[in-house]
Amino acid sequence: MFFVAVCAKMKAKALGQALWRKAAVRKTQGVVIEMAKKIGFIDYYLDEWHANNYPAWIEKASNGAYTVAYAYGAVDSPLGGRTTAQWCADMGVECCESIDALIEKSDCILVLSPDNPEQHWTLCQKPLRSGKRVYVDKTFAPTAQIARNLFALAETHGTPMYSSSALRFSKELMELPEKDVRFVLLSGPGKPENYLIHQIEPMVALLRARAVRVLYAGVEGAASYTVEFENGKLGVANLLVEGPFQTTVKFADGTVVPIAESTETFDRLIAGMVRFFETGVVQVDPAETIAIAEILEAAHRAEQRPGEWVNAQ
Fold it and tell me: What is the CATH code of the structural domain delimited by 2-165?
């Protein structure tokens, strides 16, 4: 009952805001001032770091042209955080009782659930049938086959969609010279189940080749994944629980570039997301996202067989 009451209260508040905005639309020297386009958030549970921060970043990156106006949470936070209704009330967002209602109201859609990629298949079913522009947060899919099926679903229904880790857009990686990369060494914090994506994504983006196999080795507090690619290329990802995201890149001409930190990652991710919502042009090739899913799936199988190569195809 509390959820329904708060939803009703938020709907009334959102309606009032919408009417105020409509009244504020005017012509200035013959130019129509338009309202912000509305983004709908779909999440497994809403009180998580990405959902808490993306709204302000999106408004800033778009200069107010896009705003998070609607949200749907499949469950209340299982980690003791705010309920869906509480999150919506705190964020000034209208809570939707169904994904259908959110899709109908939204101009574009963001599917989050960054720490529960196993929920993406269910959460994406209706958005990817909508024909509206959809961004799906990392990690895109728990298996390569699910990744393929999600892209096939979007294509069938003419729905523009992409997914990415923010780390591929770091200022340092984006400013590297356009040369053939032969070897990449990455390290960073986090646990494999939700942070390995942040190293595999830039690895694939830099090496631009198909992965062949993965080797895992680990000690307490550290895990290492060696990925062999076609054309004699190699990538190594080290998860150290704590510490900055660091990268060393070796080019085919012998040049080595050490990168001590990764900056402007979310600024650039969000800027690309806004461009996508505006133009419909995806920021990451679906083939790369599927290749990343193949590596992640092989890496998690390799964790069960330390010291053995596991095929990535």
Answer: 3.40.50.720
